[in-house]
From TrEMBL:
Domain TsaA-like: residue ranges: 133-266
Protein name: SAM-dependent methyltransferase
Organism from which the protein derives: Streptomyces cupreus
Pfam families: TrmO_N
Family as reported in the entry's similarity comment: Belongs to the tRNA methyltransferase O family.
GO BP term (any one): methylation
Record has Cell cycle as a keyword: no
Keywords: Methyltransferase, S-adenosyl-L-methionine, Transferase
SUPFAM superfamilies: Tautomerase/MIF, YaeB-like
GO molecular function, one term: methyltransferase activity
C-alpha cells in the first residue's frame, strides 16, 4: 500500500497526472485498485532550502517520500523508485537525475489501513509454525490480476534471489522440460483463508468440497504447487510458460518434473473438475 508524497515549489500537475502515476505503481506492484495514494504538496516560498529551486531557467524537480510496507523486496522497491523517477521526469519535463526520492518502510504493527493494523511480521508464531521458510526468488510476469483462467500462454521469469544463490543452484535444470514450482499465495489475506468446505469458486452448480479436496488459493498456509513448461535458464532467471502465479509471487521451491513421480495408477477425479478447468490453460 504505497503512499507517495511529493514536494515542490510548483503547482500540482493535476489530478489526472497523479492518477496516472498511481496507476503505474499499482500495475508494477500488482496491487488491487485504490491501494496507492499520491500527494502533491506545494511548498510556499521561504519554507524550504534547495538552491536549484531558485534558478529561474530550470524547471524544479520534486522531492518525494514513498512509504511502503517493509514486506516489499529490494527488487520491487528498486523498480518502484525507477518507475517514479521515469514517470515524473516525463510528466514534469525535468531531468531524471534531479529527482530525489526516499523510501520509508512502514513497519508491521505501525501501519493502519482501512481500519486494520498491519501485523505481518509481529504476530507471535502459532505453536508448531514453520518459521524458517525464505523465498528462493520471485515470479516476474505481466499478469497481475487474480482472475482464474487462461494461464496456458502466460510466460514468466522466476528470478532466484542473488543474495542466496548463484547460477550453480540451477545447473542441469535445463535438461528437463517441465518444472514443479512451490509458491506462496502472498495476495491472499490471512483472514480470507478457508478451513472447511465450500463450493469451488463459489459456484453453486458444483458440489461443496473441503478445502483439501480442491485447489483454491484461499487455503491454510496459502501454498500453491504448479507444473509448468521450462523455456530456458539464463543465469539466475528461469523462464517458464503456464505458471499460474501472479507477478511478485514469492517462490519457495523449484523442482524438475519427473514422470516417475507422477501417479502410477489411472487418475480418478469428479466431473466438476473438468468443468472448472475447461478454460484454465
Ligand atoms: C487456483 S490457484 C492454483 C494454483 C496451483 N496450480 C495449485 O494448484 O496450487 C491459482 C490461482 O491463484 C491466483 N494466484 C496466483 N498467484 C497468486 C498469489 N501470489 N497470491 C494470491 N493468489 C494468486 C490466481 O488467480 C490463479 O488463478
Amino acid at each position: 500500500m504505497p503512499v507517495i508524497r511529493l514536494f515542490s515549489p510548483d503547482a500540482s500537475p493535476g489530478p489526472a497526472a497523479l492518477e496516472q502515476l498511481a496507476a503505474g505503481v499499482t500495475e508494477l506492484l500488482g496491487l488491487p485498485a485504490g491501494h496507492c495514494w499520491v500527494w502533491w504538496q506545494r511548498l510556499e516560498p521561504g519554507t524550504y532550502h534547495r538552491p536549484e529551486w531558485r534558478a529561474p531557467d530550470t524547471p524544479p524537480a520534486p522531492v518525494g517520500f514513498v512509504v511502503c510496507k517493509e514486506s516489499y523486496s529490494k527488487d520491487q522497491v528498486g523498480a518502484l523508485l525507477r518507475l517514479l523517477q521515469g514517470r515524473l521526469s516525463q510528466l514534469l519535463n525535468v531531468p531524471a537525475d534531479e529527482i530525489f526520492l526516499t523510501v520509508q518502510r512502514a513497519v508491521a504493527g505501525e501501519l493502519l489501513v482501512r481500519d486494520e493494523v498491519w501485523f505481518a511480521h509481529l504476530e507471535e508464531p502459532r505453536p508448531g509454525a514453520v518459521t524458517d521458510l525464505v523465498p528462493i526468488g520471485r515470479v516476474h510476469t505481466d499478469r497481475s490480476d487474480l482472475s482464474d483462467d487462461y494461464w496456458g500462454d502466460v510466460t514468466s521469469v522466476i528470478r532466484l534471489d542473488g543474495q542466496q544463490f548463484t547460477a550453480e543452484a540451477l545447473l542441469g535444470l535445463d535438461t528437463f522440460s517441465h518444472l514443479e514450482v512451490v509458491f506462496r499465495f502472498h495476495r491472499v489475506a490471512p483472514e480470507k483463508v478457508h478451513t472447511g468446505a465450500r463450493h469451488p469458486r463459489g459456484n453453486p452448480d458444483w458440489p461443496r468440497a473441503g478445502i483439501f479436496a480442491q485447489r483454491a488459493k484461499n487455503r491454510p498456509n496459502r501454498i500453491g504447487v504448479s507444473r509448468c513448461k521450462l523455456l530456458k535458464v539464463d543465469g539466475l532467471d528461469v523462464h517458464v510458460r503456464g505458471l499460474d502465479a501472479v507477478d511478485g509471487t514469492p517462490v519457495l521451491d523449484i523442482k524438475p518434473y519427473l514422470t516417475q513421480f507422477g501417479p502410477r495408477e489411472d487418475v480418478v477425479q469428479p466431473a466438476w473438475v473438468d468443468d472448472l478447468m475447461r478454460d484454465y490453460y
